[in-house]
Amino acid sequence: MERDRTSSFPDSGQVHPSRNVKVEQMDRRQFLAASPIVIGAGASVASAQDYSDYTKDPRPDVPEGTCTAGSLDGEVFAGPPVVSGPGSDCVFILQPLQRTATGHLEYAVEDGEWNRVEALHAGMRPMSEHVLKFRLPLLPAGKRIRYRVVAHTIGWIKVRQFYHGVMQAGKPQTSSERAFNSLNPAAESTSFAVWNDTHENDETIAALQKQTTELKPDFLLWNGDQSNDCHFERDMSGQFLTPSGLAIADQRPLAYVRGNHECRGPAAWSLPEFTGSQNDEFYYGFRSGPIAALVMDTGEDKADSHQAFGGTAAYANMQQAQAEWLKQIVKEDWFKSAPHKILFCHIPLWIRRQKPGVFGGHSLCRKLWSPTLIDAGIKLVISGHTHTHHWMPIRDDQPVAQLIGGGPNPASATLIHGTADAKEIRLRVLKLDGTSAADIRLPA
Ligand SMILES: [Fe+2]
């Protein structure tokens, strides 16, 4: 392996990270005498530096030149990115990776110049094995936003001189240029597509993707239970960003909604790395034309004390926090001025049947949220979870209309297509063969 030995830790007073010894404490003659390494003729003097204690070799099992962490140079990108947010004040772009990499994002408004977006933390660019995630600055509404990701691999190579080897960067790679339209709160009309409970069913996802591409909605909302559980981080790009290897939201923003299955499994704590939403929480609001949308997180479908959660569940705290958040956000002008106000959440707030031990409709969320929802003029809840599509108009014991999408299997799956102008919102529940299972119109 070739590398420039003279460029690493030159004798200029830098501190070797593993031994905390300043090179300048030794003069060069003493230093060479102390060095056990002899490099062939022509090697620089500095190449003989050895600060390592080989009695502490952390990887005696691997030879020099072995990549012991990260990745060697090679293809970085693992499929198309996802634009998530979806409001133009909160857009993330997530790029799946197939090798450990670092990088940055570049974006341009319409045909303008490229701007660079970093994802820094404490002076460090991101380094990830699975996904790079960038938050864009405030975007102008209703504009075409072009973007691309620049990344390169990062790996550590075992060399004799340094206790944990040296970092090696791969060649920079630039992803294909893509574009999406930022949402426009002032638009006279808008449209959206809702998927729910896809549960990693490839046939269903492919059909939903095809329908969505043809409908060209302003945004896609994925209403929970994208997965069966979150067990391995290595699978999560495939579960949440490139399901079935498809580009689901590289050309339109995605509104992500967490389902109860995304609360499950040892990698469930890593979900925010693979999703993009305000403050990495799964409740937020946004405006698209005449629609004010709220997304809320119904959490699990059993009580926090259920033995299945092993003492890890505290969703009741989150539901209470959302109730307080809800009271504030409905006072904001962007929300109050919208002709149509919709809540998206995975578990319905009202379900007529009730399984023992499982929330039939999410009773705690209903109790905590519905007074504010009603006062604020929410006219519709769009949910999933039951795997059976169901239109539930207002009735005496259900003060807000509710539309539930279908299930994971192609026979039960649905796409909810919403279109709205200032006068009405129309909701078509489409089966995968394109036939309509319901056609609903709600006036402003
Ligand atoms: Fe569910």
Write the layout of secondary structure elements.
Layout: H1 28-34, E1 67-70, E2 82-84, E3 92-96, E4 101-109, E5 115-117, E6 131-135, E7 144-157, E8 166-169, E9 173-174, E10 178-181, E11 190-195, H2 202-215, E12 219-223, H3 233-240, E13 254-257, E14 284-288, E15 291-295, H4 315-329, H5 333-336, E16 340-344, H6 363-376, E17 380-383, E18 390-392, E19 401-404, E20 414-420, E21 424-431, E22 436-443
The protein binds fe (ii) ion.
The site of fe (ii) ion has 7 residues, from loops.
Poorly predicted regions are 1-49
What percent of residues adopt helix (DSSP H or I)?
Answer: 10-25%
Structural class: alpha+beta
What is the H/E order?
HEEEEEEEEEEEHEHEEEHHEHEEEEEE
Give the N-terminus to C-terminus distance in angstroms: 69 Å
Number of domains: 3
Radius of gyration: 27 Å
